[in-house]
Write a structure and sequence with these properties.
With about 350 residues, chain A is α+β, with helices and mostly antiparallel strands. Helices cover about 30% and strands about 30% of the residues of chain A. Chain A folds into 2 domains: about 200 residues, 3-Layer(aba) Sandwich (CV3147-like fold), CATH 3.40.1610.10; about 130 residues, CV3147-like (Beta Barrel). The longest helix of chain A has 15 residues. The relative contact order of chain B is 0.12. At the A-B interface, helix 2, helix 3, helix 7 and strand 11 of A face helix 13 of B.
């Protein structure tokens, strides 16, 4: 789909950040802090090589890394930067294998950027892949789970050097225990989960994520018509262009939930979309009918600049475009839909692809 | 004995320095406008002289002077007269992933910093200390920078929740470096470590500029025989006392738009409205919510440095009285070039040779001013220009609106005659008297305010926690000069924190009240 990226240097970070924000589908945490962290690490330790699974030894250990917890806390209590060293040390000791690459556990949002910093720090390459191809709220909503892997080994660490190793029996337990540890750490932690070898990762991760995020950023940054360019780059359908006329927010079960109503302007006048949110944008409804839903990606972007607008920054009066585009094929398998389709988020309807929904009109 | 009952509001803008003289009931006795001088202080001196002449009042009757000024903004933008700052962060072992001032433009960093360090110390979001403040490391850093630092900026993790580490570090600075000015993060910015630290460092660097302005203003007042209490306008449309302004000069950045919004509210008596401040080059659209400027949600950059200030949310469009017209009636081009302050020399209705928006407004009958008639043969171009300007304004208003319901539009500023009498989506267009000195009036009638921010748990006694937050904000407003009997909470914002097992929210409270001795 897009050119493969072989190196992430300081100049690449702004494009990567733009792309990660789009793939965050409204969630995943803001990318500004992550960009600074990545730039500083590259400045201190040099640029990061980006590799594919084929370039790595089959029995080499992959480090899928990301932050877990409240984004509001992560922008205040910024990481130490040395988390990666503890991850490598502990995971190599526990598995008896040698770490060969870092992978982002979630390309959408800030977790698309921090692994760049950790890879730079370790002098390891970054795998051109991630666990989601987007952002999702729960620990087990990852491609590895869809492929039948268990989280088995989860390592959490804080900035002080505490390390907690979890062996859990299921994804649901992983979620519960990891979250409790995160709260004890102060609401934010670095986490390695679904740790596996390069061989095991084949077919169990979403490939090309880093290249894709950078391609999105580069296309949009240079474009005279950013919205059209973005849609073309990711294969998105423009669901509606309009104005935000209603925003509702609540928190329950530790998640930010809410809804946003966008009323059409210009060619879309007379139409309206209602987006439902749980950290990320989950479903777009029009007149009670589903126009797009998870696991496909739904983004609210600035109508002029095509900048992603995070759910917490959506507010009345903004001129936005709502776009939706297909998720990775892994999510469209039966187990993928079961894990992250509408029913996984409590909805009573079956998943249909955004292509089919758009074709149905 | 003659009564002492008058106040003067001054606003130093990009083009003009305005002043108004108000009595106890805020009735306007006199007004004055002078060009802003490169040395801003001379302009203030001029406008004071003028306002006293026009008001024909004894200077002893002036009890309060409120100043809105661009001194601090200009110092940052021009990288001039900034003080060298020692930058101390208390955040280790966290936060090392972004060093202080990382990402700053090199020239500002060179102009501002004499050294940066991160020492250990951490408080969590709920206020518990998990890493003690490393006093010894901080002392070593302060000793190493020594007298090269003219100010110290101290920022600690979660200091808006607990300022204890920052306060301990301030006491240490007193011991090691003596009476050097200190800026504390929890008094300057809100949550978001890097943005708050940036604001705190800028604040420290502006200490010298602030003292100069304070001293110059006092000298000017003395020269004119005025013995008054001095207040500075800040970016949320409220006032801070001279002492406070000397400590927090960075808060004066953005006071111009805030003053004009508050002035518009005062002059019309309308608290919820869109305000269009039309100048010579641009139109600033802002929103009044409950009598205060709506604040911008996006991060604000000042001179290339990202901060988390509470700035008025302003949409600037390139349309003003001096905007130059080009093109044809079928395809008219508005600006973006403008005559600026030379309008009265260059516009056609003033005998000049360039077609401006003011000429168009005169030609269609929206305004009657100037010394010459608008040329008749350009009628079609003028009509097209006015129509295009109306579209720009209507679109801007629609972007800024706060709700579905039509709100009034208050037109202020020297160029406000450009605004049509009816604008789509607007209930009515209000054109108050003295609209062209709305900013100076906004400064003169502003309230004193205080703000509190922190994280509260929602599963405990939420009502009690909110009540404490309200009380803290009110205490701070009273400290800033508000009348204890009339201070009230004007804003309460509660944002839930995601991903925690125990529900918590970040709460921001602002309280404000009229000045205690007015």
């Amino acid at each position: 789909m897009s050119d493969r990226i072989r190196l992430v240097d300081a100049a690449t970070i702004s494009a990567l950040a733009r792309g990660c924000a789009i793939l965050g589908t409204g969630g995943g945490g803001e990318v500004y802090t992550g960009s600074l962290i990545a730039r500083q690490a590259i400045g201190d330790h040099g640029p990061v090589r980006v590799v594919t699974l084929d370039e790595l030894p089959d029995d080499g250990l992959l480090l899928p890394l990301g932050m877990i917890g409240a984004p509001t806390i992560a922008v205040e209590k910024i990481p130490n930067g040395g988390e990666a060293i503890r991850f490598r040390h502990h995971l190599e000791r526990l598995t008896g294998k040698t770490a060969v690459a870092v992978m982002s556990s979630e390309i959408g949002g800030s977790n698309g950027l921090l692994p760049v910093a950790w890879a730079a720090r370790l002098g390891l390459p970054l795998l051109d892949a991630d666990s989601m191809g987007r952002a999702f709220p729960e620990v087990h909503q990852v491609a590895q789970h869809v492929a039948g892997h268990h989280p088995e080994l989860i390592v959490l660490t804080d900035e002080r050097g505490s390390v907690v190793t979890l062996q859990v029996v299921s994804g649901a337990w992983a979620e519960a225990v990891a979250r409790a540890v995160t709260v004890a750490f102060g609401g934010s932690a670095a986490m390695a989960d679904y740790v596996m070898t390069v061989g095991e990762a084949r077919g169990a991760v979403i490939v090309g994520s880093v290249s894709r995020a950078i391609a999105i950023g580069r296309a949009v940054i240079g474009s005279r018509e950013p919205v059209a360019t973005l849609c073309e780059t990711v294969g998105a359908f423009r669901l509606l262009e309009g104005k935000v006329v209603d925003v509702e927010r609540t928190t329950s079960g530790g998640f930010a939930r809410g809804s946003v109503v966008v009323e059409g302007v210009g060619v879309d006048v007379g139409r309206a979309l209602r987006l439902e949110i749980q950290n990320e944008n989950l479903v777009a409804f029009e007149d009670g009918r589903v126009r797009a839903s998870v696991p496909d990606l739904i983004c609210v972007i600035d109508a002029v600049t095509a900048d992603a607008i995070a759910t917490e920054h959506v507010r009345y009066g903004q001129r936005v475009a709502v776009i939706a585009f297909p998720c990775d094929p892994i999510w469209r398998t039966a187990r993928g839909i079961e894990t992250a389709g509408p029913r996984a988020f409590g909805y009573e309807f079956d998943y249909e692809t955004v292509e089919a929904l758009v074709a149905a009109g | 004995m003659r009564p002492a009952d008058l106040r003067i509001g001054i606003d130093v803008g990009g083009t003009n320095t305005d002043a108004v003289l108000l009595d106890r009931n805020a009735a306007r006795l006199a007004r004055a406008k002078t060009p802003t001088t490169p040395d801003v202080t001379a302009g203030i001196d001029d406008v004071l002289r003028l306002i006293l002449e026009r008001g024909a009042v004894a200077p002893e009757r002036i009890t309060h002077v409120m100043l809105g000024t661009t001194h601090a903004t200009n110092a940052v933008l021009e990288r001039r007269r900034l003080d060298p700052v020692a930058v101390l962060r208390i955040g280790g072992p966290a936060t090392h992933a972004i060093r202080p001032l990382f990402g700053w433009p090199e020239d500002v960093r060179a102009a501002v910093s004499v050294g940066e360090t991160i020492v250990d110390g951490c408080v969590e979001f709920d206020g518990r200390e998990t890493t003690p403040f490393d006093r010894d490391a901080a002392a070593r850093f302060l000793t190493s920078v020594g007298t090269s630092a003219r100010a110290v900026a101290i920022t600690a993790v979660f200091s808006p929740v607990s300022g204890a580490h920052e306060l301990a570090a301030r006491d240490l600075v007193r011991e090691v470096l003596g009476d050097v000015p200190v800026s504390l993060g929890h008094e300057v910015g809100s949550l978001g470590l890097i943005e708050r630290e940036n604001a705190t460092v800028l604040n420290a660097a502006l200490t010298g500029v602030a003292r100069e302005v304070g001293a110059a203003l006092e000298r000017a007042l003395q020269r004119h025989g005025i013995d008054a209490v001095v207040y500075f306008a800040q970016n949320d449309g409220t006032l801070m006392g001279l002492d406070y302004a000397m400590r927090y000069p960075v808060l004066t950045i953005g006071s111009g738009p805030a003053n004009s919004l508050r002035g518009a509210a005062y002059l019309t008596g309308v608290n919820d409205a869109i305000v269009a401040d039309v100048g010579g080059t641009s139109t600033d659209l802002g929103v009044l919510v409950g009598g205060f400027p709506r604040e911008s949600a996006a991060a604000v950059e000042i001179g290339g440095i990202r901060t988390n200030f509470r700035m008025p949310d302003v949409l600037s469009i390139a349309l003003g009285g001096g905007t130059l017209l080009a093109g044809t009636p079928e395809a008219v081009v508005l600006g973006p070039r403008s005559t600026g302050y030379e309008l009265t020399r260059r516009a056609l209705v003033f005998g000049g040779s360039e077609a401006t928006m003011t000429d168009a407004a005169v030609a269609v009958g929206r305004a009657s001013l100037g010394t010459h008639a608008a040329p008749r043969d350009m009628g079609a171009l003028f009509a097209a220009a006015v129509a295009a300007a109306d579209v720009l304004v209507a679109d801007g208003v629609d972007r800024m609106k706060v709700g579905r319901d039509p709100r009034p539009l208050v037109a202020v500023g020297g160029g406000s005659l450009l605004i049509a009498d009816s604008v789509p989506g607007v209930s009515e267009v209000l054109r108050p008297r003295d609209h062209d000195v709305a900013n100076a009036i906004g400064a003169a009638i502003a309230l004193a305010s205080g703000r509190w921010e922190g994280v509260i748990h929602l599963d405990g006694d939420r009502a009690a926690a909110l009540e404490t937050a309200r009380e803290r904000a009110c205490e701070r407003a009273i400290e800033a000069g508000a009348d204890p009997g009339r201070v009230e909470v004007v804003e309460l914002d509660e944002v839930p924190l995601a991903y925690l097992t125990r529900p918590a929210a970040r709460v921001t409270v602002k309280a404000a009240g009229p000045l205690g001795w007015l």
